[in-house]
Design brief:
four-stranded mixed β-sheet, Aldehyde Ferredoxin Oxidoreductase,  A, domain 1, six-stranded mixed β-sheet, about 15% strand, about 45% helix, alpha+beta, about 600 residues
């Protein structure tokens, strides 16, 4: 096979045994790699109902056939497991040199199970795996731990590290690399922490096989040039995703005061325009010529890598109006290995609960000193921080029904930084995201703004399914970054051309969409297997958007219409081939070669 190695590395931490598993070619042709491969492996390997923080939960770190080859923004990895935050399928991608080196080990993925008796880390070099003690690293920040590991293993390696948040099993702890790259918001860092695995160091020297090198070189060079010559390139290089602060304010979707509002009078104090003036450095992933990592000096004069999501969630959502202070909280969260989006939600939820006198401790909106304390306490599960470490869904359940009406999550994963009172399709995107509320799979709100902002139309649902198939299906499985297409308009047709050149198999966008549909349906089957009480209500966005209208900005008085939203959800299920409960139909499973899921789903929920 070209493009794939055809095998994965299986590591049992309990027994310290390692083996190679050869995969049939159909795994690659049907799932491509990355997310697709991870989802299938988790279905096959995880015991149904496994406790996410038990030794029996598996972690899959997977690349795709285009990962870290010389093509635009290819330096991505997917980290997947059963989520301790949602108890469903969880994953995240991370841009890191670990992607480059994993592709050169001779494996398409690393699978980790079991648990170490005391803290340790893995060292993988080609087919060699060593288990190292990490007791001296345990308790260190992700940045400190990576620095110490790099002093031992050198710069020519990839590093995946957890911070104290992962060690403390914060339910939204992430995996960190390169002092600010962070991935796996549904608690992938907590899963590694439960296994006492502080880090994974990866080196590889093997070259992936490419079927048609001349065609690959030609298409890749053309794609790199297209990125550089795009109309939006210069602004992107200046601000990256931080340009979205002003855009969200203008379009009334900037999360403010725990998603009460979509506009904020002090938005300029955290804007991309201000960030430009403070920027001291720009960072990016391997093979990226449109780097998005904008670095500023924070309030403590330390370097902090910013993007829209973390600034909005730790800025407007909790009314923290000084960009340097926001940057400091962001940097501390990265050092601690805690997801900034979920952290911003947990802080906003707690501030509102405090305001409503549902909790004893009073925390004022925008109180920098308290936010800093709570961030550190959350990472170490100290005091109130132990409450915040559970995530918004569990926090709300413990406080009662009133609290559940301002808990901003879907399926347990906190919503990322777009208020959807006046964005029904984006609300549907959050509702149907395969990991819980996340924008990664479908940033349809820009399409809504350009077309029919408040409409509940079939056309929007069709667009949503297409965006999911591309962003969450194709890019997450190839595995490359979506931003060349999303932000500077690189034509989608480059990707099947590159995939065909690398693998020697003829691919079209339609072929890839079939794979994407298979992946989304398999992940849905996984959720249903793990949540035996499945119902369509699990695909509903937060109650607040239906019950409490906006009171500020151009959409004052607007809220989501429950009946109209349900109509869109019905259309979505129809287009996916799922029934009105959101459960894949038997005919759909057979058509997508997912027959192996049928007996399980028949037992759990029955099929139509």
């Amino acid at each position: 096979m070209h493009g794939w190695w055809g095998k994965v590395l299986y590591v049992d931490l309990t027994t310290k045994r390692v083996k190679e598993i050869k995969l049939d070619a159909k795994y690659y042709l049907e799932y491509i790699g990355g997310r697709g491969l991870a989802a299938r492996l988790l279905w096959d390997l995880n015991p149904p109902g496994v406790d996410p923080l038990s030794p029996y939960n598996h972690v899959v770190i997977a690349a795709g056939p285009l990962s870290s080859l010389p093509l635009p923004s290819s330096g991505k990895l997917v980290i997947a497991s059963k989520s301790p935050l949602t108890n469903g399928y969880g994953d995240g991608n991370i841009g890191t040199m670990a992607s480059y080196y994993l592709r050169r080990t001779g494996y398409d993925a690393v699978i980790i199970t079991g648990a170490l008796r005391k803290p340790g880390y893995l060292y993988i070099e080609n087919s060699k795996v060593d288990f190292h003690d990490a007791e001296d690293l345990w308790g260190k920040s992700a940045f400190e731990a990576e620095d110490k590991l790099m002093s031992v293993h050198g710069k020519n390696a990839g590093y995946l590290v957890i911070g104290p948040g992962g060690e403390s099993e914060v339910r939204y702890a992430t995996v960190v690399s390169q002092r600010g790259r962070s991935g796996g918001r549904p608690g992938m860092g907590a899963v590694l922490g439960s296994k006492k695995l502080k880090a994974i160091v990866i080196k590889g020297t093997l070259e992936p096989s490419i079927a048609n090198r001349e065609e690959f070189r030609k298409v890749s060079e053309e794609a790199f040039k297209k990125v550089l010559s795009s109309d939006g390139y210069n602004f992107w290089i200046r601000q990256g995703t931080m340009g979205t602060i002003v855009w969200s304010q203008q379009n009334s979707c900037l999360p403010t005061m725990n998603f009460r509002e979509g506009v904020w009078e002090y938005y300029e104090s955290i804007s991309g325009d201000l960030m430009e003036k403070l920027k001291v450095e720009r960072r990016g992933c391997p093979y990226c010529n449109m780097q998005c990592g904008n670095v500023v000096l924070d309030f403590s004069l330390e370097k902090s890598e910013l993007d829209y999501e973390n600034v909005a969630m730790l800025g407007s959502n909790i009314l923290l109006s000084d960009l340097r202070r926001v940057a400091e909280i962001n940097r501390i969260a990265d050092e601690m290995g805690v997801d900034t989006i979920s952290l911003g939600n947990a802080l906003g939820f707690y501030m509102e609960a405090s305001e409503r006198k549902l909790v004893e401790e009073r925390v004022e909106w925008g109180d920098f000193r308290e936010v800093k304390r709570l961030t550190l306490d959350t990472a170490h599960r100290r005091g109130v921080g132990a409450f915040l470490a559970e995530g918004v869904m569990r926090m709300a359940r413990s406080l009662g029904k009133e609290a559940e009406e301002f808990a901003i999550h879907v399926k347990g994963l906190e919503v990322s930084a777009y208020d959807c009172h006046a964005a029904p399709a984006m609300a549907l995107a959050y509702g149907t995201s395969p990991i819980g509320a996340h924008h990664k799979d479908a940033w349809i709100i820009s399409y809504e703004v350009r077309t029919d902002r408040l409409g509940y139309t079939r056309e929007k649902v069709e667009r949503l399914v297409f965006l999911q198939d591309m962003r969450g299906g194709m890019y997450e499985s190839l595995t490359t970054c979506r931003l060349p297409w999303v932000e500077v308009g690189l034509d989608l047709e480059y990707y099947p051309r590159l995939l065909s050149a690398v693998t020697g198999v003829a691919w079209t966008l339609n072929d890839i969409r079939v794979v994407a549909s298979r992946i989304y349906t398999l992940i849905r089957a996984y959720w249903i297997r793990e949540h035996r009480d499945w119902s369509r209500e699990k695909d509903y966005p937060p109650v607040r958007w239906f019950k409490q209208p906006l009171t500020k900005g151009p959409f004052t008085g607007v809220k989501l219409d429950f009946n109209e939203f349900n109509k869109m959800l019905d259309w979505y299920y129809e287009m996916r081939g799922w029934d009105t409960r959101g459960i894949p139909k038997e005919e759909t499973l057979r058509k997508l070669n997912l027959d192996f899921t049928i007996p399980v789903l028949q037992e759990v929920v029955g099929l139509k």
